[in-house]
């Protein structure tokens, strides 16, 4: 089969011929139809310090996918050959206290496909049946291929009650934009999204009914005044990983405000803790998706009018994967989807 692998310790990924994976008794074999390129894949492509520390050479990369089940392990029940599916890319153990309490997304032994284990940038993927998420007919393969990052957005957005609240999202990358759409869908009052990249703010305004703010040229306080907000935002979602964005969020939150943090800062970064204490701010770190509550909620919302389709800005046949990675690396696209045919 074709597979996109990290075979050399340098910039790039390489298309290889690999054997179709053999599945164990509790696994399924998925024929991949579409995959999404994630920021993590760009780190692996660039072979930055994190990637060099984390990813074993030779690994088949990729973790955002939609496909079709073509083989079932002998113990697998409740799934069928021909079933369209996506799946949770975090593989968990059943040993930890968290897993045994059903909090699978908090399992410290989590391993990621396409990061630690063989990934989805291939014609076939072996996945534990436990991780498979069947796709209803209403969710096509393009959307199925980006449920993983949509799940990050949903997990973050549903961290706090948003009904009637004023929400600030810092970072209009694909996940911030999708989180904005989710916040509108569940009933937030104003949703303001910031970035320093005008292309991305323009895309955010196409995907969701939001107020885009370019913090290089606009004053967030003036925007708040225009929206008749008196004390600041009730809820913040940090989706940039940028220190200045987090500082700005803390400054613009109400007393008792809540922040859900998905963005990953590049290293240790200073935080003005006294501001957090005196403003009585609640800060929640968000990792991955809740397994499987996030999946349940996001599919239900997609079936009930949540529309994030325009966040997919580019589609390429997989043989043009280099073009897809170049578009992503340029930093102004939304989601880029590769078609495996
Ligand atoms: P992205 O890199 O595509 O988008 C980040 C955006 O933040 C960019 O558009 C950038 O221009 C913007 N930005 C930079 N400085 C800013 C500032 N001062 N104010 C406002 N915006 C600013 O990322 P993405 O793929 O949308 O993911 C969002 C974040 O979530 C990233 O940090 C990513 O690493 C992280 N992430 C975390 C998890 C998790 O499980 N915690 C999972 C996936 C992604």
UniProtKB/TrEMBL annotation:
<dbReference type="InterPro" id="IPR050129">
    <property type="entry name" value="Zn_alcohol_dh"/>
</dbReference>
<keyword id="KW-0479">Metal-binding</keyword>
<dbReference type="InterPro" id="IPR011032">
    <property type="entry name" value="GroES-like_sf"/>
</dbReference>
<dbReference type="Pfam" id="PF08240">
    <property type="entry name" value="ADH_N"/>
</dbReference>
<dbReference type="InterPro" id="IPR013154">
    <property type="entry name" value="ADH-like_N"/>
</dbReference>
<dbReference type="InterPro" id="IPR002328">
    <property type="entry name" value="ADH_Zn_CS"/>
</dbReference>
<dbReference type="InterPro" id="IPR036291">
    <property type="entry name" value="NAD(P)-bd_dom_sf"/>
</dbReference>
<keyword id="KW-0862">Zinc</keyword>
<keyword id="KW-0560">Oxidoreductase</keyword>
<dbReference type="InterPro" id="IPR013149">
    <property type="entry name" value="ADH-like_C"/>
</dbReference>
<dbReference type="GO" id="GO:0008743">
    <property type="term" value="F:L-threonine 3-dehydrogenase activity"/>
</dbReference>
<dbReference type="Pfam" id="PF00107">
    <property type="entry name" value="ADH_zinc_N"/>
</dbReference>
<dbReference type="GO" id="GO:0008270">
    <property type="term" value="F:zinc ion binding"/>
</dbReference>
<dbReference type="InterPro" id="IPR020843">
    <property type="entry name" value="ER"/>
</dbReference>
<feature type="domain" description="Enoyl reductase (ER)">
    <location>
        <begin position="12"/>
        <end position="338"/>
    </location>
</feature>
<protein>
    <submittedName>
        <fullName>L-threonine 3-dehydrogenase</fullName>
        <ecNumber>1.1.1.103</ecNumber>
    </submittedName>
</protein>
<comment type="similarity">
    <text>Belongs to the zinc-containing alcohol dehydrogenase family.</text>
</comment>
């Amino acid at each position: 089969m074709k597979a996109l692998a990290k075979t050399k310790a340098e910039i790039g990924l390489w298309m290889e011929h690999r054997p179709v994976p053999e599945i164990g008794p509790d696994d399924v074999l998925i024929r991949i139809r579409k995959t999404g390129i994630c920021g993590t894949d760009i780190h692996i492509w660039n072979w930055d310090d994190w990637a060099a520390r984390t990813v074993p050479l030779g690994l088949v990369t990729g973790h955002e996918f939609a496909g079709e089940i073509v083989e079932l392990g002998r113990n697998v029940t409740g799934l069928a050959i021909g079933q369209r599916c996506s799946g949770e890319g975090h593989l968990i153990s059943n040993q930890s206290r968290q897993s045994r309490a059903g909090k699978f997304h908090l399992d410290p032994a989590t391993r990621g496909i396409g990061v630690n284990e063989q990934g989805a940038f291939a014609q076939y993927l072996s996945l534990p049946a436990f991780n498979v998420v069947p796709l209803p007919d209403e969710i096509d393969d393009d959307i199925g291929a980006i449920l993983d990052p949509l799940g990050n957005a949903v997990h973050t957005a549903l961290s706090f009650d948003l009904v009637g609240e004023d929400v600030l999202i810092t970072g209009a990358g694909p996940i911030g934009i999708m989180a904005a759409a989710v916040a509108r869908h569940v009933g937030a009052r104003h949703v303001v999204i910031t970035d320093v990249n005008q292309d991305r703010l323009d895309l955010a305004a196409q995907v969701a009914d939001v107020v885009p703010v370019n913090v290089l040229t606009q004053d967030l306080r003036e925007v708040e005044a225009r929206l008749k907000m008196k004390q600041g935002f009730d809820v913040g979602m940090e989706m940039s990983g940028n220190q200045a964005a987090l500082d700005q969020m803390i400054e613009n939150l109400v007393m008792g405000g809540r922040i859900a943090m998905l963005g990953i800062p590049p290293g240790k970064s200073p935080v003005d803790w006294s501001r957090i204490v005196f403003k009585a701010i609640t800060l929640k770190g968000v990792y991955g998706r809740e397994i499987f509550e996030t999946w349940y909620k996001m599919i239900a919302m997609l079936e009930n009018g949540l529309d994030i389709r325009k966040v997919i800005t580019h589609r390429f046949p997989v043989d043009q994967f280099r073009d897809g990675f170049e578009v992503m690396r340029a930093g102004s696209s939304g989601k880029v989807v590769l078609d495996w045919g």
